[in-house]
From TrEMBL:
This is Internal alternative NAD(P)H-ubiquinone oxidoreductase A1, mitochondrial. It comes from Caerostris extrusa (Bark spider). It comes from the Eukaryota. InterPro entries: FAD/NAD-bd_sf, FAD/NAD-binding_dom, NDH-2. The keyword NAD applies. It holds the Pfam family Pyr_redox_2. The lineage of its organism: Eukaryota, Metazoa, Ecdysozoa, Arthropoda, Chelicerata. Residues 29-232, 234-311 form the FAD/NAD(P)-binding domain. One of its GO terms (cellular component) is mitochondrion. Belongs to the NADH dehydrogenase family. GO terms for molecular function: NADH dehydrogenase activity. Keywords: FAD, Flavoprotein, NAD, Oxidoreductase.
Length: 368
């Protein structure tokens, strides 16, 4: 290609880009906060020919949370359950910003944000419509020692830390000079919380436990111990129960429920008590989806299924609104729930039929 042709090609691309940006400026701007199930569902279903879409999130990937427990024990690799947000194909690289939304000014329809990479870098983002999908964080209930010594299971970084901790404890336990009591402590894992996450992690860990017993000790003897409890104070090397019983352990996984993010707490919007989750205000062009959201008269569980449906509905409703079409009311119908309980088995709660045993485990794998 000669210089004239090359210059013409570059010029054409610049003109197209400029025209594209000009057209984009005429669109209403939708700002989506978060990259979880609800936000990602909005992003996938929103018509970007109708809207100028911006995403602000401190996480640059979507996380398939139902399989997070499996990555923590090594059954799956971390990259198998993540999808980079930029793979969605933004028109402009700046349409995605790796940042935290810290304050919302509804009078000027402006978000005050801080970079996730450079805390000193702050900026404002204007919106015509705002979708809040920042999710929730693990609830510590103010129990002493949890923030400092316990491990959560909400993000890829949490699963990576837990896997490293398990492997490190195994290596330490193999030291020939290690006292027997310290060996038992290192190989004892305490899981706090009896919800789906706690149960699934326990069962995934049980599968790992038998494999590691054979690999490290060439014996089926249960060197590894797992204890599931409701609550307890957490110290560096043990968990203390309500009756004062001390459980020496090498790892504590905390999974006792959810609490709203700081951004959600500080919002001057209606909230549902006691969860503290936000109720959107369509009159101010503000919408909430996922774990951080509540319906005024019909509260729904904080599950991936609910968040995905809410995000899909909201995106289609906004598309219809922009086209002047009728918007149908939101109606959630559960597709059922599945919880893995180990040994290729799962506990299903399906609306139409009941299964059990190996079949439920196989169905769970296919469902996921």
């Amino acid at each position: 290609m000669n210089n004239t042709a090359r210059f013409s090609s570059v010029l054409n691309r610049n003109i197209v880009k400029r025209l594209s940006n000009t057209a984009s400026n005429k669109k209403k701007r939708i700002v989506i906060l978060g990259s979880g199930w609800g936000s990602y569902s909005v992003l996938k279903n929103i018509n970007r020919r109708l809207f100028d879409v911006k995403v602000i999130s401190p996480r640059n990937h979507f996380l398939f949370t139902p399989l997070l427990c499996s990555t923590a024990v090594g059954t799956l690799e971390f990259r198998s359950i993540t999808e980079p947000i930029r793979n969605i194909g933004f028109n402009d690289p700046n349409d995605f910003m790796l940042a935290y939304a810290e304050q919302l000014d509804t009078s000027t329809q402006t978000l005050h944000c801080r970079s996730a990479l450079d805390p000193g870098s702050q900026f404002n983002v204007y919106y015509d419509k705002l979708v809040i999908g920042v999710g929730c964080k693990s609830n510590t209930f103010g129990v002493p020692g949890v923030e400092k010594f316990a491990s959560f299971l909400k993000e890829i970084a949490d699963a990576q830390y837990i896997r490293r901790k398990i492997l490190t404890n195994c290596e330490k336990a193999l030291s020939p000079t290690l006292p027997s009591e310290e060996n038992k402590r290192l190989l004892h894992t305490v899981i706090v919380g009896g919800g789906p996450t706690g149960i699934e992690f326990e069962q995934n860990f049980m599968t790992l436990k038998y494999k590691m017993s054979w690999r490290l000790y060439q014996s089926s003897e249960e060197w590894f111990k797992v204890t599931l409890i409701e609550a307890g104070k957490v110290k560096e090397d043990c968990v203390i129960l309500k009756d004062g019983t001390c459980l020496p352990c090498g790892l504590v996984v905390w999974s006792t429920g959810l609490s709203p993010q700081t951004f959600t707490k500080n919002l001057k919007l209606p909230k549902r008590i006691p969860r503290g989750t936000a109720v959107g205000d369509p009159k101010k062009n503000i919408y909430a989806v996922g774990d951080c959201a509540s319906l005024e008269n019909n509260p729904l569980p904080c599950t991936a299924q609910v968040a995905e449906r809410q995000g899909r509905y909201l995106a289609r409703a906004l598309n219809s609104q922009e086209k002047g079409e009728e918007i149908k009311p939101f109606l959630f119908q559960s597709s059922g729930m599945l919880a893995y309980i180990g040994d290729f088995k799962a506990l299903p709660d399906l609306p139409d039929f009941k299964i059990r045993g190996f079949t439920s485990g196989y169905f769970g794998d296919q469902h996921i």
